Amino acid sequence: MNKKDSYMKIIAVISQKGGSGKTTLALHLAVATAAAGKNTAIIDLDPQASATKWSDRREAELPVVISAHASRLPNEIQRIKDAGCEILFLDTAPHSDSAALEAAKIADVVLVPCRPAIMDMEAITNTLDLIRTKNAAIYVVMNATSAQGQEAKEAIEAIAQLEVSVCPIQLVNRVAFSRSIITGQTAQEIEPSGKAAKEISDLHLFMCAHMNKCNTKSEEKGNHVKQIRQRA
Ligand SMILES: Nc1ncnc2c1ncn2[C@@H]1O[C@H](COP(=O)(O)OP(=O)(O)OP(=O)(O)O)[C@@H](O)[C@H]1O
Ligand SMILES: [Mg+2]
């Protein structure tokens, strides 16, 4: 099959609230997607470049991460698609309407991480107003919840009033999520049998169910990396 004719799925992680878990979610899901055999890339649209710096600390080659400005997004997406990427994650900046809007326009799925805290809950309305009119499927992902789950339960009830889907998988506040990032890894890599790894695996499966076989193995695994990095 001509790679240019292949269909690349795009998952944007968007939240206007700083620190809600956008980068954590994008990196963990991208690693899970690459481990499942898909040619995976991340475009880091955040000037803070957290995902890009994570990639610099990372020993493993996959997933490939490039940093880009939102104004270059259509060109970069075409280039990455031509290189044979199958699943692309967009990590976006907080407080950035234009970049979030560009990402939402282009995405097939938008994930909105949200902590079960009052400031996150207040900010989510702004995020949804910004992205709601686009074609992407939108899921709020409760992040950094307590293991007991009471506050997340109340938050989910409040979010349900906003007429948006809440992902049935939550990420609990776990040290593995934050500690793994320091060494350019993810929770499932430092603690493969841990609870954080299970949550990411469940979230990945949920995402695949909504994106038509994103966990089937690619025949040309990894060929995209060199081509994407050449001009990054
Ligand atoms: N489920 C979790 N458990 C533990 N720590 C978490 C979890 N999710 C995120 N964190 C930590 O919270 C902090 C903020 O997370 P992250 O950088 O992913 O948020 P962000 O939305 O990308 O932030 P920004 O808006 O600044 O880009 C980081 O230190 C991260 O390690
Ligand atoms: Mg971030």
Characterise the protein shown here:
This protein has 232 residues and is an alpha/beta fold. The chain has one domain (7-209): Rossmann fold, CATH 3.40.50. The protein has ten helices and eight strands. It has helices spanning 22-35, 50-57, 73-82, 97-106, 118-131, 150-160, 175-182, 187-190, 195-209, 224-230; strands at residues 9-13, 40-44, 64-67, 87-91, 109-114, 137-145, 165-166, 171-172. Strands 1, 2, 3, 4, 5, 6, 7 and 8 form an eight-stranded parallel sheet that branches. The longest helix has 15 residues, at 195-209. Mean pLDDT is 90; it is low at 1-5. It binds adenosine-5'-triphosphate and magnesium ion. The site of magnesium ion has 4 residues, from α1.
Write the layout of secondary structure elements.
Layout lengths: L8 E5 L8 H14 L4 E5 L5 H8 L6 E4 L5 H10 L4 E5 L5 H10 L2 E6 L3 H14 L5 E9 L4 H11 L4 E2 L4 E2 L2 H8 L4 H4 L4 H15 L14 H7 L2
Helix pairs in contact: 1-9
Task: Give the structural class.
Answer: alpha/beta
**Name of the CATH first level:** Alpha Beta
**How would a textbook summarize the main sheet?**
8 strands, parallel
- Please report the total strand number as a whole number: 8
